[in-house]
Design brief:
It is elongated, with a radius of gyration of 26 Å. Helices cover 51% and strands 10% of the residues. Strands 1-4-2-3 form a 4-stranded mixed β-sheet. Strand 2, helix 4 and strand 3 form a beta-alpha-beta unit. The chain has a single domain, classed as Ribosomal protein L30/S12 (60s Ribosomal Protein L30, Chain: A, 2-Layer Sandwich), CATH 3.30.1330.30.
Length: 161
């Protein structure tokens, strides 16, 4: 995920020769942060890539985002550290970041990154998801059921003959 953060920093820290007023009117910020904003952009299908921090507290703030991203077909990834995620958007910490509008010269780098993330996260969802249980009984339950079946078989044998 270091490549992701380097790409994000490179995209956001572009030096331009324009003045402040020209820059403000023509340049759109390619990344947006905040759970509510990210959720809205994903629901409106304006998000190109969602990045989620792993150490969000309480976790309920972002636990729904991977499912929402899968439903809407938006690639997502989870990286280590709110502080690392906040650096490209010039904040101390940040729970989620979304890439929305990227300049044409940066689209190739973002496309390669999105493809790698889609392969590692979105396409592997069924493989990663775990099914707990699987109807395997413990030894005490197995012994109890065997004892009951043995008693039923013995009772049936006495009734028949």
């Amino acid at each position: 995920m270091t490549v992701l953060l380097e790409c994000a920093s490179e995209i956001t820290n572009k030096e331009t020769g324009m003045g402040r007023e020209e820059l403000a009117s023509s340049w759109k910020y390619p990344m947006t942060c905040g759970v509510n904003t990210v959720t809205t952009l994903v629901e409106n299908k304006k998000a190109q890539l969602v990045v989620i921090a792993h150490d969000v507290d309480p976790i309920e703030l972002v636990v729904f985002l991977p499912a929402l991203c899968r439903k809407m077909g938006v690639p997502y990834c989870i990286i280590k550290g709110k502080a690392r995620l906040g650096r490209p958007v010039h904040r101390k910490t940040c729970t989620t970041v979304v890439f929305t509008e990227v300049n044409s010269e940066d689209k190739g780098a973002l496309a390669k990154l999105v493809e790698a993330i889609r392969i590692n996260y979105n396409d592997r969802y069924d493989e990663i998801r775990r099914h707990w249980g699987g109807n395997v009984l413990g030894p005490k339950s197995v012994a109890r059921i065997a004892k009951l079946e043995k008693a039923k078989a013995k009772e049936l044998a006495t009734k028949l003959g």
